[in-house]
Amino acid sequence: MPSPEAALRLELDLLDAVAEGRAPATFALWSGRESLIVPRPMSKLESFAMASSELAARGWPVLVRETGGDLFPQSPGILNLTLCFPLDGALERSIDRCYKRLCEPIVEALRSIGITASFGPVRESLCDGAYNIVVGGRKIAGTAQRWRRSRNVESGKCAALAHAGIFCDVDFAELCKVSNTFFAACGLERRVVDRQHVSVAAAIARESNGRRSLSWKQEFTSHLSRILGNGGFFPTVTKWTELPKVLHA
User: What does the buried/exposed string (b/e) look like for 237-248 if buried means 16 or more CB atoms within 10 Å of the residue's CB?
Assistant: First the structure.
């Protein structure tokens, strides 16, 4: 399990490598330890340092990421999907298209284990946005993205990093509590509510009346990897520990 710091660093290294043509389109699935990940603008808040120290003392270090969105927690029960791919031509360079490329495989993989999902906003949810993945009106995954141009401007190359955090089996009361503590310490009025979220484990239990196989996470991960790989767009299927090999091939 990578540290949150290592995961964020590897994501940006991968984005650089794909933008410069040194790595192919790649995806990786991973989980990390407890932490709060915030977008860079939030680090400019006057109370950010104090709030970060308070949360770190509670076992929730605060880290800054380069993708957009809002505060998003990490924990071992959250499955992260990192996609990095070149953007070829004006048609590909659409925020909506990039989000759909990230979200549609997740929705299909959820369907394969009996869960019907869609996209949309969910008020009072963690890192709310138009491309939340939603089940029964509750958020089951959050998404974000960042683009980077090649340092060789004349090449015209550009790449996207798209990231999803999928709530597999988590304690939403705890995630929302620590998130709201951080918001309050930063002097922000927004709050998140646990009932606006649902985990994959809970959704499966509801759909199957508790009879679902205990191997659902392995099934879901296998379906997701196969969907991404079979599409031919992400030929490099990577365990997180193998990403450095991709970057230095």
Answer: ebebeebeebbe
CATH code of residue 172 = 3.30.930.10
Residue 73 contacts residue 37 (beta carbons within 8 Å): yes
Q: DSSP letter for 131, please.
A: T
What residues make up the domain containing 18? 4-247
State the Cα angle at 43 between 39 and 46, rounded to 5°: 145
Q: What is the DSSP letter of 220?
A: H
pTM of the model: 0.90
- Tokens standing for 234? 């992400």
Q: For 148-184, b where at least 16 C-beta lie within 10 A, e where not — what string?
A: bebeeeeeebbbbbbbbbbbbbbebeebbebbbbbbe
Return d(Cα 6, Cα 208) in angstroms, integer. Answer: 37
Residue 25 backbone dihedrals phi, psi, to 5 degrees: -55, 130
Looking at the structure of the chain, the number of domains it has is: 1
Strands 62-65 and 133-135: unpaired
For the ranges 20-34, 54-68, 170-184, the one whose mean pLDDT is highest: 170-184
Kind of pairing between the strands at 72-74 and 62-65: unpaired
Interatomic CA distance for residues 155 and 219, integer angstroms = 41
Instruction: Count CA atoms within 13 Å of residue 242 on its CB side.
Output: 10
What's the pLDDT band for 81 if we cut at 50, 70, 90? very high
Phi, psi of 93 (to 5 degrees): -90, 65
Helix residue ranges, H only, 20-149? 48-57, 95-112
3-class DSSP state for residue 138?
strand
